[in-house]
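Hey everyone, long-time lurker, first post.

I ran two proteins through the pipeline my lab uses and got sequence/structure pairs for each. Pasting them in order. The first:
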Amino acid sequence: MKKTKVLWCLTVLMALATAGYAQKQLVLLKGEKVLLRLGFGDEITFRVKGSKTVRVSYVNNLFDTAVMAHKDIIPFHKIDRIYFKHSSFANRVGGFLVIGGAGYFLIDQFNTVVVQGHSASLDQSVNRVSIAMVAVGLPMMLIRKKSQRIGGRYRLFTADYDSPFYQHDLDRF
């Protein structure tokens, strides 16, 4: 009798543990690429169609076609824009250009002073190239897209545990 009660309790605890692990996630897709993934309690910043105000809330619950942000249920088709920081290939290229331009200048100065033994001087050709690399790379690195309009190739999706877009993340516990 005691063994069956213990086994029953262990079975119930295991079932509750898997149910807590299989929470839904709100996913922003571009085609089949995941741009943003939000779980319960994550902050969501969005704008509803026909409104100019940006609302900041948290994901309270997820349904198949809607999200509950705090106490409001907002259908996916009513969300006009989602605000989040994301980087692109141009941001990474800009960072490499800034690092490369500064590095090129510093390597030339190191070569002039340490290797050749001359005093520090500015070489015109090195200055032009390094300033051009930094001047082009800095805006590319700093200008980031802050929001994404929903529609067309961009859509919101509720990812269940069985979905290929679901991220099995154990760090949330």
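...and the second, right after it:
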Amino acid sequence: MDMTDPPFIHQERKPPVSVHPVRKMFYDFAKAAKVKRVQCKKTYSELGVRGKRYRLHAAKVLGNLIIEMLAETEDEQDQLRAAIKAATVGRPPTIEDSKLIHDLLTTAAENFRSARNAQERVQLLSLYARGIPYRLMAEYVEGLSERIWNVAKKRAIDSASYTPPNNSKERYDPVKLNFFVSFITSPFILVDLPWGSRRTKDSHGENVELPNMIMRTGTYETIRLYEKYMRDSGRSDLILSNSTTYRIMSRLPAMKSHAKSCIDYFEASASSAILDIERMLSELETMNFLDHGEVNGFKTSFRQIMEYLTGNFKLHAKLQSYYSDHCLTWGLSDTSNTFLIAPHSHSHQKRCADCKGMDEIIEKVSKTLVEIKDEATGAKKQKLAEFIVEYGYNVKKLYELKAHHARSVYTSLERKRIIGSLEENQCFLTADFVQKWLPAFFKESQKMWFGKNGKSWHITQSMQLHWQASTTLTHSPPG
């Protein structure tokens, strides 16, 4: 009995005796990929239906394997497949002599000549580059170069492989929303004013009376501050989209702070100090002591310092911290007086990058001024000496603002602690100024006339707990 296999059994055919080295490597590649029937002796047109099906299957498997080798991630593989499809699929048959193609290419040539610039011409050619060969288009478009045609073809392939973004909407995440609302209503952003109130409506349409509030920062600064704080805290997953945050901020019933004078003198003085430093740097550029790049770099650094002091520094300041600049217990202690040193059970082994950068840029500008002064002569030397004194005065304002924010954060934490521990028979009083006497502001600093009797109107706010609810009373007689 004949025990040989029938001809339809898949058998691995041996390559011809005399075979090209590249073809032999291809056979080895297919064998390693476990793809059979790649050594058919017949041409594709001579194959039957089943043979063509086997050949097509082998081409798909080997093609996908090559794409996986050329592109690492799935997204890159999809883009490569789309680019291959755009470059190969849809090519027209040989119909150069048809009237339809003739009219189409004639119109394309007219539009090409009437294009205003090279960008429009490339954009126009990219519409035809995927289906029209270069030699045919060159017959209609006079002076068409292969370089321009290849650029247009590349743009066509890139456009075909573009994946539109997913614009599907989803319901809001309560966790993300609560984090953002808690941030913008914190004392770092909003400040309650001791007088006046405004009416608004809640989600049920009922009227609600809220005390007047003022925003310390603008809308854009508040959103950027929140995003940076969440990234620094390792909670980037809680950041909301810009459209959502801007819409929430537009509904915030608070007035925007347009000026710091008579509200926060430390911040107003620091802002004016930054402006004075920028003016001084501009004058140094005019005097040819610094180039334009150095001046812009210094100005950008000082603006970042001001943004950090008014924003992130207050957020990172805590009662206990391994960062010495953020540790309120350490920063508000007086090392020269044993009665004014608070105990702490941790060591300050870390240094904040922003605080360190602030000290470094201030020291760098100071050394630059001294070096320039030593090289200058005559009137310029005297002018630079004045700059050094003025610069030291402005730097002092920046450090005073930093100390002021450390005190204000500590005060807010203590106020919150005291209010949280109030009993029903206890009352918490807050005394402050409701209006400052402006003429004294121009001749004395805030530290000199702070709390002087008869200089201002004083305000006292009383808070007490009554049946597990808080009651406030504001009294502001002229003082």
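Reply from user beta_strand_b:
Welcome! Quick read of the second one: The chain has five domains: 21-70, 91-160, 174-256, 266-421, 425-479. Residues 188 and 314 are 7 Å apart (CA to CA).
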